[in-house]
Amino acid sequence: MDFNNTRYIPMSRRRRIYEGKGKVLYEGPEPGTLIQHFKDDATAFNAKKHQIIEGKGVLNNRISEYIFQHLNDIGVPTHFIKRLNMREQLIREVEIVPLEVVVRNVAAGSLSQRLGIEEGTQLPRSIIEFYYKNDQLGDPMVSEEHITAFGWATPQEIDDIMALAIRVNDFLSGLFLGVGIRLVDFKMECGRLYENEMMRIVVADEISPDSCRLWDIKSNEKMDKDRFRRDLGGLLEAYTEVAKRLGILIDNERPAGSGPVLVKS
Ligand code: AIR
Ligand code: ASP
User: Fold this and answer.
1) Which of 49, 100, 211, 223 to mutate to test the pocket of ligand 1 (most atoms within 8 A of CB)?
2) What's the family (predicted)?
């Protein structure tokens, strides 16, 4: 399929497939494709806390594109096809596995709270956790027993998801380490991609500072959504810095107050 000639569909005539807290999915230009639109909404604590942070969607679209394109390039399958514009990307339509897969390298957040381990403690090894995606229940943590008993994923799919999670963690840890950032933990989602009678599990949704904990190696400064969750301020500045370090934003082309300047590709 040639995705370089994507037909432009005006926003008003597009069919909206799904609207989540941070993104909207529209019908794509070809069967089996969707358009993923990044909003500026920031939510936390199951959307009890909500704020519009102008420019966040643009940064997450760009950072997530960078990560997913690199994952595709090293052979980790994802739903990502290409970025379309400032806020949108073309993706393959998948059936989302109703799990949030969290990988942790350093203790923080809910793990620190639940087990009383001080934030910042290096974990003996990377730990994978599963949460059932259900807003009404507040995304409860579940075990493989729950996942297979309730049919959210098969044992084989859980194996595939864990193998993907380890590869994504290895890639992301190295990527961020190279730009002076510690990958504390992250959340990913997976989908079932159906292709000529075949099904495979791919990485879906987004990977961005909204879904990772990123700490500056030198200062331990938080560069992720905890700035919003914990009312630290400076979220846009932190996300912009992540994008700059990854080489996505040009450093000196940002007149004060004009918002982030994106490198054209
Ligand atoms: N996460 C979990 N649900 C939504 C998101 N974004 C991410 C957090 C953090 C990791 O999963 O951003 O990077 C673990 O979160 P927690 O709250 O369980 O410690
Ligand atoms: N649970 C997610 C978070 O805290 C989002 C939300 O609760 O709205 O990142």
Assistant:
1) 211
2) Belongs to the SAICAR synthetase family.
- Using a 6 Å cutoff on CB, does residue 186 contact ligand 1? yes
Q: What are phi and psi of 47, to 5 degrees?
A: 70, 10
Domains and CATH numbers, the chain: 11-94 (3.30.200.20), 96-234 (3.30.470.20)
Q: How far apart are the first and last CA of the chain?
A: 21
CB of 47 shorter than 6 A to ligand 2: yes
Mean pLDDT of the chain, nearest integer: 93
46 CA closest ligand 2 atom index: 7
DSSP character at residue 13: G
Among 105, 104, 99, 212, smallest CA distance to 160 is for 99
